[in-house]
Amino acid sequence: MTREVFIETGAGMAFDDAAAAWSFDLELWGRCIQAMTAEDAHARFTAHFGPSRIIETIRGDEQAFNRDQETLRDDELDATLAILRVQRDRAITLFTSLPQDVLDHDDHARELPSYARWRTIRQMLWHITDTESRYYLPSLGLPARPRAGELLTELRDSSTHLRATLATMPRDALAQHRGELWTSTKLARRLAWHERGELDAIEELLTRWGHS
Predict the structure, then answer these.
(1) How many CB atoms lie within 10 A of CB 125?
(2) Of 25, 117, 131, 148, whose Cβ has the fewest other Cβ atoms within 10 Å?
(3) pTM (2 d.p.)
């Protein structure tokens, strides 16, 4: 089986000016492999998921593939909602089980892209909800929500708001915002990726710190 892969370059992700390899296969929905170059991202994708061929390459931060501009499908929305449910349970479990000093530990050896300000685990969890409710949704013209005062409340309330908004949004929405291009399919794809990626990074930090 040869998978179709979509390459994004010049993106602000785990690195400045990063490259990313994406799949729209339902079994890999929300999966993204990042690297410093498009060639390395494609090679790493192939190493993880098997043979693949590049269907489309785009350059620039927060642009959209042609495939993103197709109407969001029922199975893609269902997959997104299922992933969000699992990942939010995972985030809440991490938050409620970790000691305060671990939540607020700043690992000065950790390298982040220039735009990132979320250095501690607590800040990373806030970043997840800030991104979904106050960046991704309004980028497509969907309603944002203000931050709750407490992180645990925010994790729960942001999830409720996000899931309700996704369930009722137009499946073919498209918006250009600050030079970015957002669509319903892109929003679902990015949401299916983002929280899982941040929580994976948190667990990698915990392993590095010897906390399990």
Answers:
(1) 25
(2) 117
(3) 0.95
